[in-house]
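hey so u asked for the seq, here:
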Amino acid sequence: MAKKKAETTIEEKLRALYNLQLVDTHIDEIRNVRGELPLEVEDLEAEVAGLEKRLSNFGIEVTAYEDEIKAKKISIENSKELIKKYNEQQKNVRNNRAYESLNKEIEFQELEIQLSDKQIKQLKALIEQKNEGVTETSTKLEERKNHLKHKKNELDAILAETQKEEAILLEKSKEFAEKADEALVTAYTRIRASVKNGLAIVSVERGASGGSFFTIPPQVQMEIASRKKIITDEHSGRILVDKELAEEQEAFMKGIFSKS
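ran it, structure tokens below
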């Protein structure tokens, strides 16, 4: 017959939970060292991608304008050929009506040439404007790329120092969470998310819960020290442990942190 697994006591759960808090706080400190760097790198990467896209769009637009200019030049040449043709035809007409009709065609083609010339000038002005945009964007892109490279190197250096340690601590966090009891860890996670410093379990110091100025009644302090039940601070909602337990776990975890 398989041996029944011994039930974890409240004290053991509290010790595991306090260990979990110490590990999670250490992970927070590691991530704080990185600060805003990952977000800065993300933002710079997005900005560089946006500038590269803008440059690409400039290129597409300039090519389209250049193709339009080529088409307009071909149109001008076609109009010139037609004018030449109509001039030749005028030499052989037999009445004024036919002559005037050809004259109107010549005038129309001349207007077409003038319009195409005007449109070519407008397109060249647009190309010049886009090229100015290309120069400006290229300069900014180069500057942003250099800044991104610097920030990436900075982040990589920090990651190289902290990634291995963080991975070990995340495993330890998981390990202590399993020892602490699922319902207790759920409460711990909820409290931790609701407080600024991430401390969900604290010790009683000088008659008050850690980080609080509200005094805990002596009777409650005795109950906390007995480690027979889970007690929370009625003001902050944090889970409370006695100072002795906290100091013992801090000394225990100090050895784990030095190894990681």
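The chain has two domains: 10-34+181-259, 37-175. Confidence is low (pLDDT under 50) at residues 1-5.
lmk if thats what u needed
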